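Annex B. Sample input.
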Amino acid sequence: MVEDIHGPIRPVAKRHRKLVVVVDDSPESKVAIRFAAARAVHITGGGLILFHCIRPGEFQHWMAVADRMREEAFEEAEELLSGVGQQLNDYCGVEPETIVLEGDPAEELIKYLNSRNDIFGLVLGASEEGGPGPLVDYVTSTAISEMPCPVFIIPGKMTYDEVDEMA
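Annex B, continued. Sample output.
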C-alpha cells in the first residue's frame, strides 16, 4: 500500500487560508482568540477573521430608538474587534479581518462560513463550567453536518501559557 503513495495527485496550489474565531466578552472567547491568532501565524497563507454577531431582538423599540440602538451596538462591536485586533497584532503580528453581522449568531456564522471559500477552520471557546455554551452546542450537534470547515473547540479552562505551548 505504501508504494502506491508516490506524490501529490495534483500540484499543490498556494492559497490563502483563514481561521474564523467568534469574539465576545466571555473568558472562553479570549482563550479561543489567542489560540486562533497563534495558529494563524503558523498556517501558510494564513489569516484570521474576528467574527461578532449582534442579536436583532435587542432593538424592539420605536423606529428611531431602535435605529440608534442598532448603530450603538455596531459601534461597540467594531470597537471591541478593533481593540482585540490591535492586541493580536502586538501579540503575534497578525492583522485580522473583522466582520460584524446582525441576526441569530449561530445561523449567521454558518451562512458566513458557507459564503467564503478561503476558510481553513472555525475556532470556538467552550465554557469553563457547565455545558459547552450555546454556540458550541449548536455547532457540534445541530450544524456539524453543515460545516464547510473543521471546528476547533478550545477548553475555556486553558491558560494562555497552555495555549501558547499548543498553538
